[in-house]
Amino acid sequence: MAELDVDFVRAQFPAFSDPSLAGLANFENAGGSYVCTPVIDRLTRFYTSRKMQPYGAAAPTAAGGAEMDEAGARLAAMLNVGEDELSFGPSTTQNTYVLANAFRQMMQAGDAVIVTNQDHEANSGPWRRLADEGFEVREWRMNAAGHLDIADLQALLDDKVRLVCFPHCSNIVAEINDAQAIVAAVHAAGAVACVDGVSYAPHGLPDVGALGADIYLFSAYKTYGPHQGIMCVKRELRDALPNQGHWFNADYPGKRLTPAGPDHAQIAACAGVADYIDILHGHHSNDDPGPVARAKRVHDLMRGREIALTAPVLDCVAELDVQLLGPSDAASRAPTIALHHARAGADLAVELAGQGIICGGGDFYAIRLLQGIGIDPAHGVLRVSFTHYTSEGEIADLCTALRRVL
């Protein structure tokens, strides 16, 4: 496939033609991406003509239910999981809390779970709370550079470990962990692998089936969609976990691990994410290799684009008196760049806002990570994050602003 056509990409996002955003460059994409037109159109249609209980006999209610089902089916196909293995929830944080409660009910005295200190708190805190119930919680710790070494995980694995939770990619260090190799190590020890993909999925949907993860979690609002958490759980594990929904919904796969009532409109709008991936594939290719391959091709287009954009930012950062967190190689990281400076991260973000750069400063709910590499979370870091729709001009503006401020 050809290189990503960024002009075509940006035409799919109304934000880039909104006069109120003119002169501003969005470098806070790790906190939530812009929303693509197909998602907006589907959400508008649902709120306009489907806003009633779905799955009824009348045409508009039947159409609403069909659109919700379409979202699950098409995303599951692209992620290479069974349609019944994907479910929606109000957020990834909430989905993780529900999962942790289900494991609490299933685990036995003496069982252990492993978490990392590289995680966002959403994929760490709920599991760590199992210690309050008498279960053992072990921490797979990063090294001083923020890297997770599989050898350190191996030293923690034994026949007591039931579950290992780790990030596909950190929201601060941004190193892309070898999830497939980690999952294989976890499975070899007879444990379940839970992968937090929130910081990875915005850079191209993963092939969850190929990764082999028992649980894979990510957020639609960071993948150009509405505010929903998407959860893939292998069928055998889902059925083994205690039902967390209403007792009479225990036989419905999409409701077993999502006790909250579904957000009909936002679930239906998630099909727009699949629309967007198909639109990009259709623009860049003349054939149709199937949903998994289409998603893989678009993933590779996005990653190729992001690597090319990340390299000049890393070169710029290398010139400045600032500490880069994570790898200095663009190909081994996501385009989420956290910087530690003598000045507080939040203060730097305020100054950059005056330069037309939208970014963030703080701890980004990764307090344990910052502590693990010797940074005071109260001081925080500056984080600039982008994705495939970012332009070369915006990257140049970012580098100019960083040089002025830092």
UniProtKB/TrEMBL annotation:
It comes from Pontivivens marinum. Gene3D superfamilies: Aspartate Aminotransferase, domain 1 (3.90.1150.10), Type I PLP-dependent aspartate aminotransferase-like (Major domain) (3.40.640.10). Keywords: Lyase, Pyridoxal phosphate. Pfam families: Aminotran_5. SUPFAM superfamilies: PLP-dependent transferases. This is Selenocysteine lyase/Cysteine desulfurase. The keyword Hydrolase does not apply. GO terms for molecular function: lyase activity. The keyword Transmembrane helix does not apply. InterPro entries: Aminotrans_V_dom, PyrdxlP-dep_Trfase, PyrdxlP-dep_Trfase_major, PyrdxlP-dep_Trfase_small. Residues 27-242 form the Aminotransferase class V domain.
